[in-house]
Design brief:
By secondary structure, the protein is an alpha+beta fold. The chain has one domain. Helices cover 37% and strands 14% of the residues. Strands 3-5-4 form a 3-stranded mixed sheet, with helices on one face. A hairpin with a 5-residue loop joins strand 4 and strand 5. Bound molecules: zinc ion. Zinc ion binds next to helix 4 and helix 5.
């Protein structure tokens, strides 16, 4: 079956576990492994990527972000705090350095400057940086984009802080080795910023 982004992910069956070194582990969601292959070998529409990422966000509604088991302040993800309740496809996303990013976030605030919601856009390029597993995307969408750029309002100049926050987040241990390598690489790459 090829995952189109429209199917519901069975989170009970594919529960988070840290047994990712076991090749037979269910950690790598079969549909998303197919998804990686599929994306590499096919031309996919923007709505395809939008559906995949939106589906992960929808399934994460109510997810409590935590560090060392301690819930983060205002860290409960809500689909209502995602602009239009969707992650939208955008062909090119530039971060503060003009580099192409995998995701981009606009922080929406009220009259007093309080966080209302995050407008998250995605490109098709995520797979060039790391594997397409639910937990990897979840870490990027919930921790990097929604919580750090959105809730906390950390700007592009301070990506070093964001990547360090990602490493501290409890979701991080469920990401793949390639994702962890990518975060370490980005911590080094942004060390001299600001
Ligand atoms: Zn960012």
């Amino acid at each position: 079956m090829i995952y189109t982004g429209n199917q519901k992910i069975d989170w009970g069956k594919h529960s988070l576990n840290d047994d990712f070194n076991n090749a037979n582990s269910e950690y790598f969601i079969p549909d998303l492994q197919l998804y990686d292959n599929f994306v590499y070998t096919n031309k996919c529409s923007g709505s395809f990527f939008s559906n995949i990422m939106t589906s992960i966000a929808v399934e994460s509604d109510g997810f409590i972000l935590a560090e060392n088991g301690k819930p983060l302040t205002r860290g409960t993800f809500s689909i209502d705090k995602l602009y239009n309740r969707r992650i939208t496809y955008k062909e090119n996303i530039e971060d503060c350095d003009g580099n192409e990013g995998n995701f981009g976030t606009l922080r929406k605030v009220d009259d007093r400057g309080n966080f209302v919601c995050a407008q998250i856009n995605t490109t098709s390029s995520s797979l060039e940086s790391y594997d397409g597993t639910v937990e990897n995307f979840q870490c990027s969408i919930l921790v990097h984009e929604w919580y750090n750029h959105g809730v906390l309002g950390i700007t592009g100049k301070n990506h070093n802080q964001i990547y360090n926050n990602i490493k501290k987040n409890d979701l991080f241990k469920y990401t793949t080795p390639r994702y962890k390598f990518y975060i370490d690489y980005m911590i080094q790459k942004t060390a001299q910023d600001n």
